[in-house]
Amino acid sequence: MDGPGPGNASMPRGFLLQGFSEFPHLRPLLFLLLLAVHLATVGGNLLILVAVASAPRRPPMLLFLCQLSAIELCYTLVVVPRSLADLAAPGPPGGRPISFLGCALQMQMFVALGGAECFLLATMAYDRYVAVCHPLRYAAVVTPGLCARLALACCLGGLAVSVGLAGAVFHLPFCGSRLLVHFFCDITALLELACTRSYADELPLLGACLLLLLLPSLLILASYGAIAAALRRLRCPRGRRKAASTCASHLAVTCLHYGCATFMYARPKASYSPRRDRTLALVYTNVTPLLYPLIYSLRNREVTAAIRRVLGRGRGRRAQGLREP
């Protein structure tokens, strides 16, 4: 085994994912729970995608929601299938191997999708701002062309930040046992394995947090500050409630996403706790993606109507099939 010093830094030869190998008796139960949550998450997001695609008219908020569901679907597919495979197959107690390139790609895709979601939530906040504060100009401002450009910018922004962050993290020298106390290649777990212990190692992560968390959150706060001021000026309680309800689902998803991401990544390296962070990661990579389609299907009337159309069409086809001889 390599020594801990920087001089014994390893060549790119992969890592070991510990996963939950130290809990062999809990692994079958954990596998079944994660599989059920994963199937529900995939099914919920696919249902929203199909419902939006089959809707006769698709306002900009539905298009943004469709992109959000696609991002969440890919987000879970980057992490969960590998975790389920590791839980299902009995592996060595020291961890299951993952190649250097595979680990880098997993981390990069995870950050890219999470970053795209951060930018998309800021874009959706701007959409809500125009809808509430400038309702008469909404159709002229938020055009399909603008929606397409904003959606592309969100994806490219997340991709650019993730490539820079992955390059900075995997340029660090790694030494020791190469054991990641995690079930996927997360940034905090990788920084724990870095041979160096200077604050400069945290600068790429700090820069990514500024771009992916601070900048979009400021735009969201500005949008909702203007929305709150507009709601105060409304004299009709019914109009105030209707305008507030259009923002409720987006605000709930934004608080979930930014709350988890800020707590996990916007803190000093000295406060990292590998096993605690692994448990928290289990929640935000499995539970929160399941909550998003539930929140939107319950709070957004257009989504609810689109889902009912899809489900009603499916029931109608089944009934027609039963009537045919």
Automatic annotation (TrEMBL):
Annotated TM spans: 29-53, 60-78, 98-126, 146-170, 205-231, 243-266, 278-298
Membrane topology: Multi-pass membrane protein
Major localisation: membrane
G-protein coupled receptors family 1 profile domain boundaries: 44-296
Keyword set includes Phosphoprotein: no
Cross-referenced Pfam families: 7tm_4 (PF13853)
Highest taxon of source: Eukaryota
Name this protein carries in UniProt: Olfactory receptor
Annotated source species: Nyctereutes procyonoides
